[in-house]
Amino acid sequence: MSWTVYLSGEIHTDWRDQIIQGAQTLKLPIEFTSAVTNHEASDAAGDVLGEEEQSFWRDHKSSKVNAIRTKTHIEKCDIAIIRFGDKYKQWNAAFDAGYCAALDKPYITLHAEDIIHPLKEVDGSAMAWAQTPEQVVQILKYITEQ
Fold first, then answer.
1. Which CA distances in Å does 13 have to 16, 46, 82, 133, 144?
2. Contact 80, 101 (CB under 8 A)
3. Is the whole-model pTM more than 0.90?
4. Helix, strand, coil percentages for the chain (3-state, nearest 5)
5. What does the DSSP 8-state code read for residue 118?
6. What is the mean pLDDT for each group of 10 consecutive residues in the chain (146 residues)?
């Protein structure tokens, strides 16, 4: 079986690359998908629909355009990995986790121990909580090789 894994969340570190490289090294049967990880491009996704004077409406349009990709990839994935970093609050990642939970889609959270408390509900619906990309790769190895 080939698996589709959606990578959601924090875009300021190379955690995605670490997971993809680890899976490729182990030759795991996984295709990875992701939201747009270029912050500026994501913020400008709705600009094609016309210029906005208020940032709320620019963000609103861009979030809807981005949601086309995000919703499609989440609905089609077998499992999602949802990363919460320490530099910014990833509200979009929390939303993705909630969407996965609503769809009964399994997901793994990836974050440091110091944010367990604010993520207790998100972690409560997760199938696993990992602290490193290497742990995620080992989980993916287990579920794809058994």
1. 8, 25, 13, 11, 26
2. no
3. yes
4. 55, 15, 30
5. G
6. 96 96 98 95 96 96 96 98 87 95 98 94 97 98 91
- Token duo for residue 80: 């999602």
Q: Which two tokens stand for residue 106?
A: 């399994």
Q: Which residues are paired to 81 by β-bridges?
A: 7, 108
Spatial contact of 35 and 10, defined as CB atoms under 8 Å apart: no
Residue position matching structure tokens 């490193």: 132
Whether residue 84 contacts residue 119, with contact meaning beta carbons closer than 8 Å, is answered with: yes
Residue that is written with structure tokens 């408390």 in the block: 117
| Distance between CA atoms of residues 32 and 140, nearest Å | 12
> Closest by alpha carbon to 32, among 55, 52, 7?
7
CB-based contacts of 127, cutoff 8 Å, min separation 6? 79, 106, 107, 108
Sole residue written with tokens 């399994």? 106
Going from the N-terminus, what domains does the chain have, and what CATH number goes with each? 3-145 (3.40.50.450)
Amino acid present at 88? Y
Using only C-alpha atoms, the chain has a radius of gyration, in whole angstroms, of 16
